[in-house]
Design brief:
Layout: H1 2-28, H2 31-37, H3 42-48, H4 52-68, H5 80-91, H6 94-106, H7 117-137, H8 147-167, H9 174-185
Helix pairs in contact: 1-2, 1-4, 1-6, 2-3, 5-9, 6-8, 7-8, 8-9
Amino acid sequence: MARARSEERRAEILRAALEVIAERGYRGASLGAVAGRVGLTQQGLLHYFPTKEALLVAVLEERDQWDTGGLRGSAESWRLELLGSLVEYNAMRPGIVQTFSALLGESVTEDHPAREFSPRRYAQVRQELAEVLRTEYGDGLPGGLTPERAAPLLAAVMDGLQYQWLLDPEAVDMPAAFQDFLGLLRPARPE
């Protein structure tokens, strides 16, 4: 019972941290502001997350869990259509996408606490996307690329569309643009 309550509290803190980071950015977010949102003192929050950096990495990891619905490690379950559904889902939660995108952009600096997390995450994402592409196309895509060569391009399209959509949601229909991209990956139909 106590363990379940602790996990609930941890999840509550992560949601509050995501909100605070969305409002203020990582550098402007404080542990005190997160603690206040969940009715804890800053010292109480440190019981769950010993540093602001640990909280940030936990937020990023949790965001990935929300996105994959716990399917990590079972790429067999992922198909290109499911990636399209993920893009549609992200279009319904601009605050989370904005927070993740801002944190990702900040993490390219040497002193950012997510600096080590981001390359590890992208290595895993590329590997998972390569498996999705391999499941769909075998060892070679219609254009001749291997799944490993195409995976970083697929990740770049997904993240790049998010940035364009965040900047101008009226001009960029993120789900439709992603479906257009998937159409480019399909083999040409004989006429």
